[in-house]
Amino acid sequence: METAVHSASNIARMLQVADPSTDWRELPEWLAFSFELGERVAVAFEARVTTCAVLIPPVRSFAAVFAATGAVLGVACNADSIPDVDAHFAALSSLTAGSAIVVKMGERIYSASFQGVVHRDGATFLRIEYNGMTQYLPQSECHRVQVGTGGKRSLPTGKPTRSRTAAGIQDILGEYADDFLAVPTVDAVLVGQISLLTEELTSVSLRAPEQQRAVPLAALLRASRFLPDGGISRSLLLSDRVAEFAMPVDDTPHVVIFDGARALSRYRSEFPNSSWIAVLDRCSTSIDQGVDVANEEFAVRRGEAPYSRLLSIPDGAEFQAFERGR
Amino acid sequence: VKYATLAQTDAYYDVASRAALSWRSVEHPVLEALSAAVYDLSRLARTADDETGWREFLYPARRARNLATTVPLPFSHPDLGVRTLLDELERNLNPLRVYGGEEAGELGSTVVATGRKLVDLDDAPLRDAVVEIIQKSDPQPSPADLTECVTTTVDGEPQHAVAELPKRARGAVLLPIGECCGVVKRHLGSSGVDRPDIRVLSRHEVANVDPIDQLIVVGPLYWYADHQYVLTSPRATNCIVLKWAWYREREPRRSVLDGSRGGVAMRVRPMPALRTTLEIDADDERTPIDWASVSRELSKGDDVEPWEAVRARAAVLAGREAVLLPEEGDRQVWLLDPLAPAAQRVARVEVGDLDPGHVIVLRTSGGGDLIVPLADEVLGARANELRQLQRLWKTRVRAWVLEYPTLRAASAELRKRGCSAANPQTIQNWLGERSLRTENRGDWQILMDAVSLGADAERIWRAMSRLHSAHSAAGKSIGRRLRDMANTAPLNNLLSTGVQTFALALGGSVTAYRVEGFSPVVVECHPARLMVPTRVHDEWLT
């Protein structure tokens, strides 16, 4: 699709945004910054550079949700769509029999269970069961399988139709949309106050320029709590108050976005292998706690973040970014 | 934290990029003399080996100085509160002489004499500066301002939450001591001053206020040390800090992250030169909360057996109250977020999840536990009889435990008799108000036999099971009730003062309090002291 914004080097500069308080317009500078930050941190992670970015804006609103959405779309447009087959197959092979998986069949995704690895005629297959049937999938096609739940639980009975939201996502992501809507991952984890983040994610919409089909931010972030049963998630929304949580898909998130000092100080250790974005709220009395954590991480940094100098920081915001040292 | 739309967030960013901070120096010779005397006394106290004996004088003296230097009212105004403090200081002069010696006594006398001189004056330098600044920039109240005046109630409190006030309101004054906002608002609206359009905000309100043109910040700025956003995340394009001529201020920090780019964009105008021989800064004057005294005051008074004591942490609440929150056992508390959507306005959270600024709901009459009165409501007429049985077995268990030297020895005896659940912790739980019976009926019989209630064991067991069901039902309904209250009652008092009381249908009340801070130290107290809001001495707080 020619108008799909994925073809631009910077998605944020192409999108339009609206909520009940404003008409459609280009992303304002402060919003584009958060979106682009998420995208760049995710892309750096894809290149195996694990970074930490800390943002203290004049007001925390929308910074974390746009960074998370930027990360999810950034991965969708930049990540290698066919991962290292051998590594992926090895990971799948190590699953216990009965583990929940999803399988892409044509344009649809099905919920299935892993039943082991089979060797036949010198070739290796994944044995998969769904809807009462057994399928043997060659190792070379293992990228069609992901660990996790989601997807339809029965075989198609008619021609699939595409919702208006999915069509809007197609406008934005173009050729990447199919994989985006088909492969369950956790590219981004957003940690914070759920009620506030939900309000932000559901009240703001994005669209490709000159297109009429709007997509709520929540539909782009694709956290499972915003999806219907069987929906394919790309992220996880996590309360900064929960003690325990389960990842819907066995995945290392590219980026974890911490909305507030509490989220950063409590949950960063849960995601030691991911890149981090922390949004610290100047109006919170716990900001000092977040600043201390950020400065401690900065003290043991490996170097400057590759995207650090590429971002134009909005007036009144403070920004720190570095390659993590541990 | 309030949800802000894209348009509102745009406006906040716009203000942040254009804001400027300027200074207005204020002078008053008698107040300067009072500040100097309190300052000298504080310095002398630091040379003492033990400051304890000085506190009864020093703390009220600092409080009097704080009120006089931060509240824009005439010094003679009865609601300023300085006169009462001077009476207290006068009473404590002799003890100060005893503990601090002659030099301390002389300085104390100077504080009292200067204070008396001050409260006889009708001067109001801070108020005059506020009115003059507003008058100069905005001589005529706008229609929006006048609309706001119309919607102001008789006692001067706004009918609507500040966050919901007309967006065009242009100027406001920010006070460091939040509980003085109401009286200052009333004074400014009175016929003597006649500026009811001047909005008076606390630091908690200013974070959620829509951007305005002008904010007059009453200093010294150390009052906002934990609330730097007043300056670093400005809500007004023009911030004017009122500072005393003898006070050396520090500019707000532009950045806090190591190796960062960007930062606070506010343009800070040069500070006026000090015009006095006296020179004080934040390190000289800032007085932290005396947590040891607050904790002691909250936990004192009860004859608590060592094995009964529980660990707790003091928290200071809005309205100059404080509470002990549990550090162990059941640590759940009701949180009320007045700015959250209706469905999420009330939640049950761990004490460890609380931060300063959060609002918690506590029972303010009839004990600290919210479950008990609601369970009694569920039980109706039978409640009294069942509670009597609960008190009976707990009293007997307590008396029986006291026959043993330690809780461990008592639990060993119960285990010897076959009570499998007995250990020091479970016995402690059985003695508490919330525990109703043992988990296991066999353990219950052994416990009742031990305390000579074996013949009534079955009857009390059934009664306690009834209570248990009622407690469960109350636990389920309490969230709904609190939610109903929070969603139907206007929360303007809570937003402006940090405190709001709600009447319960069954009598008594609950109160929502904003948490102002947590003690760094943990104390031991009787379980009955937990979650009970208590008014503490002013002097411990500031």
What does this structure look like?
The complex is a heterodimer of chains A (326) and B (542). In chain A, 29% of the residues lie in helices and 26% in strands. With 326 residues, chain A is of the alpha+beta class. Chain A has a seven-stranded mixed sheet, with helices on both faces. In chain A, helix 8 packs across helix 9. The two termini of chain B are 26 Å apart. At the A-B interface, strand 1, helix 6, helix 9 and strand 16 of A face helix 1 and strand 6 of B. Strand 16 of chain A pairs antiparallel with strand 6 of chain B.
Question: What brief labels describe this structure?
Answer:
heterodimer; A: 326 residues; alpha+beta; 7-stranded mixed beta sheet; 9 helices; 29% helix; globular; disordered N terminus; B: 542 residues; alpha/beta; 8-stranded antiparallel beta sheet; 16% strand
Report strand order across the widest sheet of chain A: 12-9-13-14-3-16-15
Cα distance, first to last residue of chain A? 42 Å
Count of extended strands of chain B: 15
The amount of helix of chain B comes to 40-55%
Rg measurement of chain A, Å: 20 Å
Beta-strand content of chain A: 25-35%
Determine the most extensive contact between two protein chains. Answer: A-B, 50 and 45 residues
**Overall body shape of chain B:** globular
What is the count of β-strands of chain A?
16
